[in-house]
Specification:
111 residues, mainly alpha, 5 helices, elongated
């Protein structure tokens, strides 16, 4: 009778760690059409969410370059960051200045 072959131990695999990074939509907004569609989606899907719409403007501003947008809007970069942050509460005048600087138009239609 033959002896059964000895089992070779399986090498222990070292668990790998998955590295994640926060998602930033600003990296996906590459063209003026994409930027306008993103803002339009916010206006359509969450018309009462003023903070969300301000954040959407902030996302678009980051995609275009916050310094240039602030300059075009006649605001300081710091005040633009503050106004368009999650805790910001921009005035309507600021929203209009930023929209103009971004090259997007707000759209109104009958409900």
């Amino acid at each position: 009778m033959t002896k059964p072959a000895a089992k070779t131990p399986k090498p222990k695999l070292k668990p790998t760690k998955t590295k994640t990074t926060p998602y930033d939509v600003a990296g996906q907004l590459r063209t003026p059409e994409e930027m306008a569609a993103y803002l339009d989606a916010w206006l359509e899907e969450a018309p009462d969410d003023a903070a969300g719409i301000a954040r959407a403007l902030g996302d678009i501003a980051r995609a275009k370059g916050m310094t240039q947008v602030a300059k075009d809007a006649g605001l300081s970069r710091e005040s633009l960051y503050r106004a368009l942050s999650a805790d910001g509460n921009p005035s309507f005048a600021t929203v209009l200045k930023v929209a103009r600087a971004l090259g997007v138009k707000l759209h109104a239609e009958a409900a």
